[in-house]
Amino acid sequence: MGLEFNPHNYDQQLADKRQRLVDLLAPFGAPEPELFASPPEHFRLRAEFRLWYEQGVPHYAMFEQGDKRAPVLLEQLPIASRRINALMGPLLDACKANPELGRKLFQVEFLTTLSGQALVTLCYHRPIDESWDQAARGLAEALDIQLIGRSRGRKRVLAQDYITETLTVDERSWHYQQVEGGFTQPNGEVNQKMLSWALSAAGHSERDLLELYCGNGNFTLPLSTRFRRVLATELAKRSVHAAQENLRMNGVENVTLVRLASEEVTQALTGVREFRRLQGIDLAGFEFDTIFVDPPRAGLDPATLELVRGYPRILYISCNPETLAANLTQLNSTHQITRCALFDQFPYTHHMEAGVLLERR
């Protein structure tokens, strides 16, 4: 990603994506998509580099997809945040100068925030222990970063394994704990636009929201202001823990968070199965008028499709418009698209994020 960086072509690439989305949604009578562009450079808040050694000297390297033998050596990465670019040189210089930091280092992972916080993970083909900690502490202090070391079966955390992002959505600030190795939206500026659009599409309801695939609560937090209550579900333990902390940190009290897969939610709501994880939760007390889904690239499975069809309003964020279109083929008989949007999370690639609001016919 980013190896074909050409900001002069950005507007045309975005226009091509828009047309592709229009074509995909045309069979469903969708309105004109709202378009949310990305900054043309320094938009990506995380980046991962392999190290490529030439005559024993390490270089940051990336590879074209499918080719791991021809590295593209980098000193800077224009698509990455300014904070990442500012850290790349000093970090590598420190690793070159100190064998405790640089010996058998093979990968560097950066995670940054719009507010300038940074977490860096150094990955090694050798065991690391307390002797690494001392050198790493000096580097972390010098660069003002959170620093983590990883080797097979080992993880060295000097202070904390997360940073805190602050996103502004409709003039309100939301704080998110972003954990090393957990999923976060890579394009912070577009993420803010996506959250604002979701709020606008959701409107205001005196009833409740069911959210599937809530992750770390990226959408959950702002959407909680638009509904009486929210039942949010997520399967990944790391994401559930982050979401719980984010709800606490932002003082959100009208969200019930449960660790369930989407198919388990279907079984619970239809009475097919009972789950110990739902003990003490009165499912019958919820009055859902909207369901929000942000599924993986494969889209919604058949059972979940049948579940969402039962709600008056479906708010669907998709990272793969092709599977979105396939799902819409099933939903089109009961719901119509009343709003749609394109979010350019991944400039200079074919990937795009889309959102649709479907309302019962």
UniProtKB/TrEMBL annotation:
<keyword id="KW-0949">S-adenosyl-L-methionine</keyword>
<dbReference type="InterPro" id="IPR030390">
    <property type="entry name" value="MeTrfase_TrmA_AS"/>
</dbReference>
<keyword id="KW-0819">tRNA processing</keyword>
<feature type="active site">
    <location>
        <position position="319"/>
    </location>
</feature>
<feature type="binding site">
    <location>
        <position position="218"/>
    </location>
    <ligand>
        <name>S-adenosyl-L-methionine</name>
    </ligand>
</feature>
<feature type="binding site">
    <location>
        <position position="234"/>
    </location>
    <ligand>
        <name>S-adenosyl-L-methionine</name>
    </ligand>
</feature>
<keyword id="KW-0808">Transferase</keyword>
<comment type="function">
    <text>Dual-specificity methyltransferase that catalyzes the formation of 5-methyluridine at position 54 (m5U54) in all tRNAs, and that of position 341 (m5U341) in tmRNA (transfer-mRNA).</text>
</comment>
<protein>
    <recommendedName>
        <fullName>tRNA/tmRNA (uracil-C(5))-methyltransferase</fullName>
        <ecNumber>2.1.1.35</ecNumber>
    </recommendedName>
</protein>
<feature type="active site" description="Nucleophile">
    <location>
        <position position="319"/>
    </location>
</feature>
<comment type="similarity">
    <text>Belongs to the class I-like SAM-binding methyltransferase superfamily. RNA M5U methyltransferase family. TrmA subfamily.</text>
</comment>
<dbReference type="InterPro" id="IPR011869">
    <property type="entry name" value="TrmA_MeTrfase"/>
</dbReference>
<dbReference type="GO" id="GO:0019843">
    <property type="term" value="F:rRNA binding"/>
</dbReference>
<feature type="active site" description="Proton acceptor">
    <location>
        <position position="353"/>
    </location>
</feature>
<dbReference type="Pfam" id="PF05958">
    <property type="entry name" value="tRNA_U5-meth_tr"/>
</dbReference>
<feature type="binding site">
    <location>
        <position position="185"/>
    </location>
    <ligand>
        <name>S-adenosyl-L-methionine</name>
    </ligand>
</feature>
<feature type="binding site">
    <location>
        <position position="213"/>
    </location>
    <ligand>
        <name>S-adenosyl-L-methionine</name>
    </ligand>
</feature>
<dbReference type="GO" id="GO:0000049">
    <property type="term" value="F:tRNA binding"/>
</dbReference>
<dbReference type="InterPro" id="IPR010280">
    <property type="entry name" value="U5_MeTrfase_fam"/>
</dbReference>
<feature type="binding site">
    <location>
        <position position="294"/>
    </location>
    <ligand>
        <name>S-adenosyl-L-methionine</name>
    </ligand>
</feature>
<keyword id="KW-0489">Methyltransferase</keyword>
<dbReference type="InterPro" id="IPR029063">
    <property type="entry name" value="SAM-dependent_MTases_sf"/>
</dbReference>
<dbReference type="GO" id="GO:0030488">
    <property type="term" value="P:tRNA methylation"/>
</dbReference>
<dbReference type="GO" id="GO:0030697">
    <property type="term" value="F:tRNA (uracil(54)-C5)-methyltransferase activity, S-adenosyl methionine-dependent"/>
</dbReference>
<dbReference type="GO" id="GO:0005829">
    <property type="term" value="C:cytosol"/>
</dbReference>
<dbReference type="InterPro" id="IPR030391">
    <property type="entry name" value="MeTrfase_TrmA_CS"/>
</dbReference>
